[in-house]
Amino acid sequence: MKKNFWINLAFQLGALAVALLITTLILLAAGAPPFKAYASILDGAFGSPGNLERLLISWSPLLLTTAGVLITFSAGLWNIGVEGQMTLGAIFATWMLRLLQDTSLPPALIIFLGILAGVLGGALWAGLAGALKTFGGVNEIFGGLGLNFVSMALTIYLVFGPWKRPGTGSMSGTQPFDRALWLPSFPEMNLSPWALGLSILAVVIVYFLLRGTHFGLRLKAVGKNMKAAYLMGVPTWQYSMFAFLLCGAFAGLSGAIQVTGVYHRLLPNISNGYGFLGLLVAMLINYQAIWAAPVAFIFAALNTGSVQLQMLYKLDSSFSGVLQSFLVLLVLLGEGVRQRLLGKR
Amino acid sequence: MNVELRDIHKTFGRVHANVGINLSIPAGTIQGILGENGAGKSTLMKVLSGFIRADRGEILLAGRPVVIHSPADAIQHGVGMLHQDPLDFPPMHIIDNFILGRRGSVLPNRKAAVLDFNKLAEEFGFKIDPEAYVDSLTVGERQQLEILRLLWLGARVLIFDEPTTGISAAQKAKLFAALKLMAGQGKTILFVSHKLEDVEGLCHRVAILRQGHLAGQAQPPYDTRSLVEMMFGKAIGVEARNPCGGAETVLRLQDLGVEDYRLKVRDVSLEVCSGEVIGLAGMEGSGQGLFLRSVGGMVRSTGGRIQLRGRDLTGRSYHTFKRHGTAFLPAARLEEGLAAGLTLTEHVVLAEQPRGFFVNWENSRQLTQKRIEAFNIRGTPASTVEALSGGNQQRALLSLMREPLNLLLLEHPTRGLDIESTIYIWSKLKERCAQGTSILFISSDLEEILQYSDRVLVFFAGKVTPPLEASGLSSQTLGELIGGKGWPESTTGPKP
To answer: pLDDT at position B492, please?
Structure first.
């Protein structure tokens, strides 16, 4: 047991080292000084209270999408459609806010209903992918990918069509909502305690759901072996659908928070890759919910930290994505090599 | 082409699938290969056709020793194999499927291939449109396509693995005519089957395999009795059984029918009383698996009624059967029965389905520990099931059964287990019978069927015998029935 732990750790640290080596080579090739670039990432993430705030703001949606895909992964499902589910959450939230913003309802209630609508929107979109799989035999990877494109097209249509700003529509999105409809934030800040709280709560819920409940155990059984789960009395397709709906609800919540708490309007590409990033985090932590929060935090730090690389070294900010992807790839590769060298388990 | 196999050995782990097999087949012969499931027929044929390499031994083709590395290599040497399930590409045009596998040009000459195809098809009297799609063909026609393809690729030795399964009588006649024609042309035919009638009616000579050994060879006129004895071993003595004697009926089947794409099982009527054990015998794929799964609601029956303790459960799902005290234990333990990656405790929790939202892990661990002791499982509550040995996995599956049970459906309950585990598992099953559970089980082991059943149903190509008293059944009769002998024409069952 103990020995395995150290071997695993060695492999994971090795993967990290190789990932850093590769990205360093890329930096050199791009003509940027690697150590200064890494330092500026750290600085960009933690260098000032403002930077730290931006880090926490992007941690929240990542936590939610990670929490969601942990559920679908447990059920053995590749929910590639989280991006679209997040987008639909944003669309539904915007729709609800637009519907109610001119009524006399109290703003808090409107925000609450907006977020609820977002949750439903995400669940609906995920339910669609689930139904395509369960009743139509469409693999959830294709279904999810297709629905991602549909959601993107739908956003563009809404931003440039029915919901466009007075005058002409633009990529900067719909007309921002009235301040009263913003999710309350910490004083003098953009960070909302609600967003942060709900996201952390989501991870905690998923952790306990997967670890300690019959629901979680049955999900796992469906994911590990659908036939055996069925013979042990688990209603299998229903559980697959539950997993989709639940994951979609989390993704929808994160979309709704982007609208009510961060951008205060609907933007094209509002999901901003958080769905895919959530999949990467889940893979990197080997689907162990306990590690979701810290690893998502590091990923968020890489994201916000590399923003200023563009100004300093003319590097695209997607550089963080390169580092993140290499890390995941190499950790998975290391796991494969370890199993091959040492035999399974 | 003469084929000679010399001292072929092949082991898979601890299983010795082929033990020093020597066989020499002259060109122009239809050679039957007879044996029960697991006798080593398929292994031997896979060695000859390049799917697997023998551990030891030599293959001689036309007198010259050859080393065959792969199926593609085999066809270069003139050896082709037709598999039981046709290995073709359903969404392709027949002619494209036909061309596939031919070495040489990047751009195949389609026109020439069509001409060749039609000429070959005509020679054998096969009527297949080369431009149709493969999935429009019946199993028999796909077989014909495969024969033409192998001949076109230059096969001079053709291996047929259970070719008469799933094809119509007319197609069978056509196949046999084609086989005789090919043999007349000097091709060597290996005909692998467990059907005595087919082998006796077609083959020039027969080799019988049993438990990896060449048990014997025979030539016409065949003596069925000695063929069966070579296939299954010496007659087995059977002890007297206690009949039902007025016990309550647990399961009542009325004209039950069930079918899949290659088999139809029709009109099975059966009453099973409390504590009774019914053995389902037959070569694998004869309909007993389909029948067993339909009795548990896993496969929808196509006709008739199923009653469990007086309740009509026809057409209901397995989960409904389960609620009414049915349990099904599949043969593929790790594929269907247990979820690899989950621990024994997790399995027990899943199987028990206790109420509540949160799992009480401490109680569950204690419960699992009790089960481990009661069922003599070598493992801990935290062991994942794939880490257990086969016998322990089977005991783990048994330990997951709930109490009380009305009906227990088992597929090959002791397959792959040693004697000790087998005896232990049957002692546990008999305990259940004493508590009133009825058992239906499939086995390809004649001894197991005769030793543990009260009554036996024999399956052959979808046909079913009426229930036969195990005590009045000899292994000879049973072996013949399994091989398709002694079945009267046009009825569903033979005279016992």
So the answer is: 47
